[in-house]
Automatic annotation (TrEMBL):
GO terms for biological process: acetyl-CoA biosynthetic process from acetate. NCBIfam families: Ac_CoA_lig_AcsA (TIGR02188), PRK00174.1 (NF001208). It catalyses: acetate + ATP + CoA = acetyl-CoA + AMP + diphosphate. Its EC number is 6.2.1.1. The gene is acsA. Gene3D superfamilies: 3.30.300.30, N-terminal domain of ligase-like (3.40.50.12780). GO terms for cellular component: cytosol. It comes from the Bacteria. This is Acetyl-coenzyme A synthetase. Acetylated. Deacetylation by the SIR2-homolog deacetylase activates the enzyme.
Amino acid sequence: MSEKIYDVPSEWASRAFVDDAKYREMYARSVNDPNGFWADQAKRIDWIKPPHKIENCSFAPGNVSIKWFEDGVLNVAHNCIDRHLATRGDQVAIIWEGDDPSQSRHITYRELHDEVCKFANILRSRNVEKGDRVTIYLPMIPEAAFAMLACARIGAIHSVVFAGFSPDSLAGRINDCQSKIVITADEGLRGGKKVPLKANVDAALKKCDGVDWVMVVKRTSAAIEMDDVRDFWYHEAAEMVTTECPIEHMHAEDPLFILYTSGSTGQPKGVLHTSGGYLVFASMTHQYVFDYHDGDIYWCTADVGWVTGHSYILYGPLANGATTLMFEGVPNYPTNSRFWDVIDKHKVNIFYTAPTAIRALMQAGDEPVKKTSRKSLRLLGSVGEPINPEAWEWYHRVVGDDRCPIVDTWWQTETGGILITPLPGATKLKPGSATRPFFGVVPEILDPEGVVLEGECTGNLCLARSWPGQMRTVYGDHERFEQTYFSAYKGKYFTGDGCRRDADGYYWITGRVDDVINVSGHRMGTAEVESSLVAHPKVSEAAVVGYPHDIKGQGIYAYVTLMAGIEPSEELRKELVAWVRKDIGPIASPDLIQFAPGLPKTRSGKIMRRILRKIAEDEPSTLGDTSTLADPAVVDDLVEHRQNKH
Ligand code: PRX
């Protein structure tokens, strides 16, 4: 762990919204007088009816209930668009940069208003009403933003499914929330490669009964099949509607979106976020964490299929009247300079990306960075997984020319917005640490018995009280919500992450302590990969763990026991990787597969993952006690044939 400290640059201390003294003062008020603090913050957005009830939350076992601003009425799309029209109608809201560097678009707030209203009118014309679910399976094109905001405008609940997911994964998500309509494109385009989105939807819908409509955006003009009754083109429908669409009045606690995310057990769960608290929190964190000032060009490289894209490409920035950049491509296409070229092309001031991208670009050396200017850059951000100090230092020195602070932001799909982070004008930085809690956030570190640890310590990270961006429930399954997040430590939200607090009170996230792995910043449940593997006819048993991976952060390591009579082979290894890829999506592809004659189990039949993790990490000398295993000998074979030997 690095203990190097970077002071707040002097120009930052004077220009930023918050310096250290202000951070301490605001933080103290946020925890001592949360109702007063959040009542003031609620004023950052427009309310049709302002809230008087501020916080009404309980983490009590059996009675978890989270409500913020519950008597307030608002519309999220109005806040992200309409309220800006009088003062910034001609300001660019979205800069779109295509996969192909010759393609880009500038969309003003006025244009965004018109596009979103048309989109919303199309949805209304197909009988989409307040509370209906809409599945969005689109690449990173402006229509993805129009679709999400159109849902918000008419009170429909969007469920964006990352366009890298397979037809089966898509079908599961459509069925879980019973969407009546799916919005997709003919094809996606990433790194010059085409992704058959419409064909994936066609395959998915063979497993879904309730979908009446498929709206298709033309992106590549590929030849695709269109069902005469079910499918229609967006560009044709858009010609039939007007650019005026009245907003739906929404209660603060009316749902805004569902986003599926992986957990340690079972299928992905639908994380539900609501309107008022989410927007206040996304807007506030975007302003303070990125120190966003009027006129700044801000770029978050996430995909709208993940929560980072929801909160920090769309809702937070647009609520703040920002100019937000949306990028269709990938970091290394057409060259390893792409990110930096885009920064120079659009004069980006604030840049927010993931450690996995930083590590991959670091491997390509300094030259692709150094040949670009990047002089517009002022602030860098990191999100999605722990950033190793080496990558942090490179990001700071090479990308930021030692000039730009880095905000290492810790949060989760469930938290809606950033919870632990530096503020660039206030916080001294330590490479690898997410540093201090944001306003209103009360982290606690607990030992496995539930004792709250004080001072310097390492343990499991919980949050002692609610914040407005917190998820409200698992869609359709409140019991699972309570079970997943509130049962390990009574009365607290358990994050699933391990954490260290140092002598300065800084937080260092050490990674997941449950059966979730984080591959290139994407969350994957080991149980999902296992159930995919055991569905293969030649596999009898499978156990999946994470292992350290130089670029991805964690890689997927699968132990596979074959059916009697099936011989291990390289072909079968490839077949199994392809199987999981097809079943879940490329992000779930196992990196290493070890054919295991047996798995280490206790006498009661429970797989001892601790041992499998150690072997996958290439640390066979630290296996610990194996005497409780039903057959300790299986371990010797696993160690001998481990796939990650250095
Ligand atoms: O383990 C933590 C890791 O990513 C998990 C949340 O993943 P997801 O819901 O997909 O959201 C990702 C984008 C917010 C967390 O439980 N994580 C996220 N940010 C950081 C992090 N780990 C360390 N440092 C971070 N800055």
